[in-house]
Amino acid sequence: MFARGLKRKSAEEPEDVEGCPAGARAAPSYSLQRQSLLDMSLVKLQLCHMLVEPNLCRSVLIANTVRQIQEEMTRDGTWRVLAPQAAGRAPLDRLVSTDILCRSVREQEGECPAPDMGDGQPDLVPGPAVAPAAQALRSPQSSLWEGDGSRESRGGFQKSLDQIFETLESQASGSVEELFADVDSSYYDLDAVLTGMVGSTSSGPGSGLQAFASATTSPPSSSCRSDLGELDHAVEILVET
Amino acid sequence: MVLQPSERYHRDWSHRRLGPWCSPTGSPAPLSCETGCGEGSWILVCRLLVPTQVSLLSMEEDIDTRKINNSFLRDHSYATEADIISTVEFNHTGELLATGDKGGRVVIFQREQESKNQVHRRGEYNVYSTFQSHEPEFDYLKSLEIEEKINKIRWLPQQNAAYFLLSTNDKTVKLWKVSERDKRPEGYNLKDEEGRLRDPATITTLRVPVLRPMDLMVEATPRRVFANAHTYHINSISVNSDYETYMSADDLRINLWNFEITNQSFNIVDIKPANMEELTEVITAAEFHPHHCNSFVYSSSKGTIRLCDMRASALCDRHSKFFEEPEDPSNRSFFSEIISSISDVKFSHSGRYIMTRDYLTVKVWDLNMENRPIETYQVHDYLRSKLCSLYENDCIFDKFECVWNGSDSVIMTGSYNNFFRMFDRNTKRDVTLEASRENSKPRAILKPRKVCVGGKRRKDEISVDSLDFSKKILHTAWHPSENIIAVAATNNLYIFQDKVN
User: Fold this and answer.
1) β-sheet bridge partners, residue B13
2) Most A CBs within 10 Å: which of B334, B337, B396, as the mutation test of the A interface?
3) SS3 letters for A68-102?
4) What gap in Å lies between CA A166 and CA A228, rounded to an integer?
5) Who contacts A23 (Cβ-Cβ below 8 Å, separation ≥6)?
6) Chain B nearest-CA residue for A63
7) CB atoms B282 and A240 under 8 Å
8) Tell me: the pLDDT tens digits for B377-434?
9) Residues B95/B78, Cβ–Cβ less than 8 Å
10) A16 CB neighbour count, 10 Å cutoff
11) The pTM is what?
């Protein structure tokens, strides 16, 4: 297995973790795990093999996982995106170590991770770490994140993920299907692919990736157009290539 | 190597019905999980490594195939990614064993003939034929490569002296004919012995060409190419019991073909939604019923199996039976759906049961009971707590296959660390064995392996964190009537035999 021998840094850090269970420092909370899983899934969907068609079964399973997390977060009321601040542009690979994240919440709390966020973590603010707002950084609840040594998890996600969520939020809908409703359906009708892959939004695979990459260096206020480019790219991966 | 006419083909298929499938002693051999001695212990017969050079050699000249095989049994670094075995299949008599690899090649092994002088050699398989089945292609419209990897091989039952098999990559199915040639015509009038044209003026007499014996040559020729019928990746092919039709299944559709017709196929299942945004489920495997030529099953990524009857309608979107196990709420996680995705489905030889493989278990279903399986076997439940890591490194998407033995009493499937597992359905005993170079000498008895789950690790046990997840046994095959198994580990093919004394 990978991450063998990884030290539990978070456990060794002396932290004043206010209002959190003693075991919280050693293992991540359910919401952190869930968030990391969501981000991991989105990354998986976006990293497609450009030469060979990616496995449709795998893409569908990952997309279903994303949908499931999103539905649960919507039910919790945690599906909330704060405006992306200039809170750092740490690269994607500074996700909290999987070894830490994948530790079962059961070890931490001694109970099953329940969808209801209320139990066991009363002080935890239900906010996705993907949107690093300055307010979240300073709020006392966020000390839990600091306690995990996971500063990266707050500020470390690429801008484009923020923009995806921002777009989701701005459309005032939590459903993945509505998200893609704007896109011309013929764009990813595989039977009609004989006419070529370019759809109405005119972003092919290459440009989608470029929009992704450029998002890390562009200022937070990116145009709506690049948002759509990345969304198209994600759609493309989900349903076509 | 020349087969006598009576051995060449069998027209009598009655022995394939329900019957006493036996090991050589005449009784089904039980498994032995303990010391590995006595009845039911497994020994390595041979390990076959087929690097790239073999195919080049055999195509250029007639070569004693055994020489090729032996010379490449040594360990070499010839192995490339193209040599990774992607499918393994015995033919209906077990005399031939076919493998397909990532490089698009098919290698057929033939069982060593029994001889009085070398009794111990029986059970060994040697290279019989090698050919390039599929080539890499490029889809210009989508700007994507089409892999030449052989996804599945299925044999046709033998009906004459030649052997026929279907091999498929992601997009195209091909019917190959493998035949032996041991005679050649000599004495042409217009051509000399080297094939050059003779000057007609020099011909003074006429003669009739005669057939003379020659060294055995095995030829593989493509007889049919079934192309352009699949938009998505083909994951299964299955020959129907009528021996006239077969089906090919991709992620969203299943097509029915007639062997004689290559420019048409019938679409019998189509689960593609009108709106691709609504796609949440794909077809993962499909198989015809072994006796009823109208019935087939297909499995899905949501852990369901559908039995369909082609007599009901032309498009079998409505199933006759729907097999699904209710979810266990205590085991629910974000990975529940992914690990319930079925990677393989196989009918028992009797046709009464189906076996399915999902990420952590093998399940046996009775066709008469749809609401739950009759048996569930844990393959590697210790991975349940590691699902997040396995999701990250994509191992959770590995597609393991599963196989029945000839009598449907034992089932086998692969795992990680080159482990494979066998479950005896009658005694409820199971065994974990390893296919690796270090641990097996030819004819040595395989030692059962054990994974230590927690607490103290005993000697000879291996801890979960030490498992090598890059060494996965995805493809295995079981001889149709004897206890001989073929296990593919990357580019190695291991053949094990039940040692019965």
Assistant:
1) none
2) B334
3) HHHHHHHHHCCCCCCCCCCCCCCCHHHCCCHHHHC
4) 11
5) A107, A108, A109
6) B280
7) no
8) 999 999 999 999 999 999 999 999 999 999 999 999 999 999 999 999 999 999 999 9
9) no
10) 7
11) 0.69
